[in-house]
Design brief:
Largest sheet: none
Number of strands: 0
Shape: globular
Oligomer: single chain
Distance between the termini: 48 Å
Order of helices and strands: HHHHHHHHHHHHHHHHHH
Length: 463
């Protein structure tokens, strides 16, 4: 099987990936700015953002994964030139958003009790719980933005997303300045203020993206399709997205549990971990953007039933993603002190971050490759393999290695991070093998609608 991309495949991947990467980095940059601005207050506020973000995304990422079912549904419909399939997919995405936002908000309510149960530092717990409470109002627009983003990426209309992210970052800096530091007559809210600012920014993002992209999405949203809210079809979409949701939750949950265990080593260790993981996550956004582009191009090729182009798109994504992450690893290995110094001037926090960043550089290579492989599989409609391999790689291998290295062998935080590297390496190998096996054969388009129901609907429209 030939996965070697042609120059045209690399060019197509780069053209689509660049704006998607810009969006991913822009979204992550909002969190980076939050961390950098909060880090100027105290180690407690910095640690609270780390703990709050871990809890937030451990829950919220389930919905993100569920909505990633739009990648194969919409991209394959684009490739098959099926506008009604695109419309039904988008409208079902918004229907699921209502349920997902409500469920996540309910699960945020007991955050303080959960932090206490997990034996987190007593001075960090109330601030982190306040951070979670301030995030609740932003959950519906958070998921609505994901629906629009995934759909527009599949349609190849990414410029509205880029413009929205740029504007949202400007607003986020202003809101942080006001709410974190107590300017313009507002109280000084610290880390909690950054959460409230993020909620406001998420409403702004969803509204602005809808306005900027209306000409592109109007044909699919202006008229409600009754079939879009068919319970069985919604159930099939949820069934397709559930493995993606669990995959995302398992992956982020692995990083979150590492963050929790870092908290057992104290506030300084937790703050240093937050600096290092924030930098690693920012670099990972590039690979995640390339993974999104890979899902779109592979999905379109599958929709056209062109497996040669599907394989070449997979190869192009792997080459671009792997090359960038190797370059990033070199920077992390050679300049950890400079990178950590951007976030904090606390000598103790810096010392922790400088030790962890070179490890991050090493595991980022595997992390980038596994992300791209998962994107390829998602575009092809295989949502179950990434879930199974994440369970095996992270929780069956990586986390146990982290625990053994950190505690019985006494390596502390370094041991936790080396276990992460081991888990990511295992997931990357398993996913790559699955990509080769799946793309070696013809793949049929992912079907959500019952064919009989669709024919009946067409007969009603004709009559």
């Amino acid at each position: 099987m030939d996965l070697v991309p042609r120059r045209a495949n690399l060019a197509s991947m780069a053209r689509l990936a660049l704006p998607i990467v810009t969006v991913q980095v822009g979204m992550m940059f909002m969190g980076v700015v939050d961390t950098m601005m909060v880090g100027r207050l105290s180690a407690i506020d910095l640690a609270a953002v780390a703990l709050g973000n871990a809890y937030f995304y451990t829950i919220a990422v389930f919905g993100i994964g569920m909505l990633m079912a739009l990648d194969p549904i919409v991209a394959q419909a684009v490739g098959a030139e099926d506008p009604e399939g695109i419309a039904r997919g988008m409208q079902r995405g918004f229907a699921l958003t209502l349920f997902l936002a409500l469920a996540a908000s309910v699960l945020f309510l007991p955050s303080r009790a959960v932090f206490v149960l997990l034996r987190q530092p007593a001075d960090v717990v109330p601030v982190a719980a306040g951070y979670i409470f301030g995030s609740i109002p932003g959950m519906f627009p958070f998921y609505a933005f994901v629906v629009l983003r995934q759909s527009l990426q599949a349609l190849g209309r990414v410029s509205p997303i880029v413009l929205t992210i740029v504007a949202a970052n400007v607003l986020n800096v202003f809101l942080n300045w006001v709410l974190i530091f107590g300017n313009l007559g507002f109280p000084r809210m610290g880390a909690v203020g950054s959460a409230w600012g993020s909620s406001v920014a998420r409403w702004f993002m969803a509204a602005l993206l809808l306005a900027l992209s209306w000409s592109a999405v109007k044909p699919f949203l202006s008229r409600v399709r009754r079939e879009a809210f068919d319970v069985l079809a919604l159930g099939r979409m949820a069934w397709l997205g559930t493995p993606l949701a669990f995959q995302q939750q398992l992956e982020f949950g692995a990083f979150a549990i590492i963050g929790v265990m870092m908290g057992w080593f104290g506030t300084i260790a937790m703050a240093g971990h937050q600096v290092a993981i924030n930098l690693a996550a920012l670099a990972f956004m590039v690979a995640l953007g390339i993974a999104g582009a890979s899902a779109v191009l592979v999905g379109r090729a599958v929709g056209r039933r062109d497996m040669v182009e599907a394989r070449r798109a997979a190869g192009a994504g792997t080459l671009l993603g792997g090359s960038f992450m190797v370059a990033t690893a070199c920077v992390f290995l050679w300049a950890p002190g400079f990178l950590a110094g951007i976030y904090t001037s606390d000598a103790e926090v810096l010392a922790v971050a400088v030790v962890l960043l070179p490890i991050a550089g090493i595991f980022l290579v595997a992390d980038g490759l596994q992300a791209v492989a998962a994107g390829v599989l998602r575009g092809a409609g295989d949502t179950r393999s990434p879930f199974l391999f994440n369970a095996l790689g992270f929780w069956g291998f990586g986390i146990p290695v982290s625990v053994v290295l950190a505690f019985p062998l006494g390596m502390g935080g370094e041991g936790l991070w080396w276990g992460l590297a081991a888990g990511l390496g295992a997931v990357a190998v398993l996913l790559y093998l699955r990509v080769r096996r799946l793309l070696a054969r013809d793949i049929r388009r992912t079907v959500i609608d019952d064919p009989g129901a669709s024919r009946a609907a067409r007969r009603r429209r004709v009559a």
